[in-house]
Amino acid sequence: MSSNPAPMSLNKLTIDRSVSPEGATTLVCRGRITMETGSQFRSEVKSLAPQNKFLLADMSGVDFVDSSGLGIILGTYISARSNGCDLVLLDVHPRVKDLLNISHLNKALEGKK
Questions:
Q1: Across the beta sheet with 25-33, what order do the strands follow?
Q2: Where are the beta strands (DSSP E) in the chain?
């Protein structure tokens, strides 16, 4: 029997950058934001925040955030704000949206529709 690679991907986070014609930078995130992967999210935002007034994070592909990941997202948001950059989460996966609603962070982190 061959080993199944799926468990390894459970703790994986990929982040791709895209820039709209208007110049808005979007981080397209896929996977999970946890204690193991959160530093990758923080690093991406930290590197972009100083030169951007507005940063979008497409979270449609993030289906799991643990308590450490939630703390990292909040800390990253605060850090970006201190650099004059607004970090907004877009298209948040329903499971993650529930977590943001329960913790009352949805109003600060999610874009207005």
A1: 13-19, 25-33, 54-65, 86-90
A2: 13-19, 25-33, 54-65, 86-90
CA atoms of 39 and 19, how far apart (whole Å): 22
For residue 15, give every residue at least 6 positions away whose Cβ sits within 8 Å of its Cβ, in sequence order, or none. Answer: 27, 28, 29, 30, 40, 41, 44
Q: What is the pLDDT of residue 110?
A: 78
The model's pTM:
0.83
Half-sphere exposure of 90 (CA within 13 A, CB side): 14
Residue 109: pLDDT band with limits 50, 70, 90: confident
